C-alpha cells in the first residue's frame, strides 16, 4: 500500500512539473503595445468628413512620434494607446481634439500692398514667419478694396478629421539609450 502511495505521489509531482514546464515553453511573449514613451511608426490616410483625402503616408515613410510627448494631435494620440504592431484603427478626431475650433481673433486685416499681386485671390495660401521663427501657413480669406483679410488659423482648424491608421513599428523608449 505504501509503495502505491509513493508511486502515485511521484506521478502527481511529475505531472505537475511536466505541465508547468510545458506551459512555460508554450507561453507567448506578451505583445508590445503603444504606451507612454514608446517610439511609434504608423501608416495613415487622413480624410475630411466628405471623404476627401487630406494627407497620406502611402508611398512615403511612415509617420514617427514618441507616444505621450504631444508630437501628434491629442485625439489621435489618445486613440493609438494600447495598439500592437500590425494593429489597425479608424479614428475620428473632433476639432477640439485636433487643431482646435476656428478662432475669430486669428483673422487680420492687412493692406493689399503688403502682398504679392498674384496672391490677391481668396483661398491663396502663403507662408508667414511665426514668433519663434517657425513657418506658419496663412490663407487669404477675403479681398477688399484696399485691404485683405488673412486667416491665421491652422488650415485644419474647425474640421473633424478621419484617420485610417496601421501601426508598423513600436520600440520601447529605453532601447536607444
Mean pLDDT: 86
Helix fraction bin: 10-25%
Q: Helix/strand/pairing class, anyone?
A: alpha+beta
Beta-strand residue fraction: 25-35%
Separation, N- and C-terminal Cα atoms:
63 Å
Question: Mind describing the biggest β-sheet?
Answer: 5 strands, antiparallel
Q: Which spans have pLDDT < 50 for at least 5 consecutive residues?
A: 5-17, 20-26
Radius of gyration: 28 Å
Approximate shape: elongated
Query: What's the β-strand tally?
Result: 9
Q: DSSP helix count?
A: 2
Element string (H = helix, E = strand): HEEEHEEEEEE
Question: What would you note in describing this structure?
Answer:
The strands form 2 sheets. Strands 1, 2, 3, 4 and 9 form a 5-stranded antiparallel sheet that branches. A 4-stranded antiparallel sheet has the order 5-8-7-6, with no helix packed on it. About 20% of the residues lie in helices and about 35% in strands. By secondary structure, the protein is an alpha+beta fold. It is built from 2 helices and 9 strands; from the N terminus they run αβββαββββββ. The longest helix has 25 residues, at about 1-25. The relative contact order is 0.21.
SSE diagram, text form:
Elements: H1 2-26, E1 39-47, E2 53-56, E3 63-66, H2 74-80, E4 88-93, E5 107-111, E6 125-129, E7 135-143, E8 147-151, E9 161-171
Antiparallel strand pairs: 1-2, 1-3, 1-9, 4-9, 5-8, 6-7, 7-8
